[in-house]
Amino acid sequence: MTSREGMTLKQKVHEIQMTNNYFAEYTGIKVKQFRETLLQHMSNVKKSVAERTHHKRLYNRRVNKRQMLKQESKVDLGKLLDAGLVVIESSEAK
C-alpha cells in the first residue's frame, strides 16, 4: 500500500474503495459485512469466556468447600480418637 501523506482526499477515497473491492473479490463478502460478522463473533467469544470463568469459579468454590469439610472431619476424627484414647487409658488404669 502506498503512503497517504501526499495524496489528495479524492485519491485516498479512491484507494479505500479499490481496497474494499479487492477484499470483496478475494473473500466473496463486503468489508462492512465482514466487520459486522467479526464483531459479532468477538462478542460471542467474550460471552463464552465470561461464562467459562463463572463456571470455573463455582467449581473452585465447591472443591474448596469439599476440602475444608474433609479437613474439618479429619480434625474432628482426630479429637474423637484422642478422647477415645483418654477413655481407654483411664479405664485401663482402674
UniProtKB/TrEMBL annotation:
Q: Which organism is it from?
A: Tanacetum coccineum
Q: Know the name of this protein? A: Uncharacterized protein
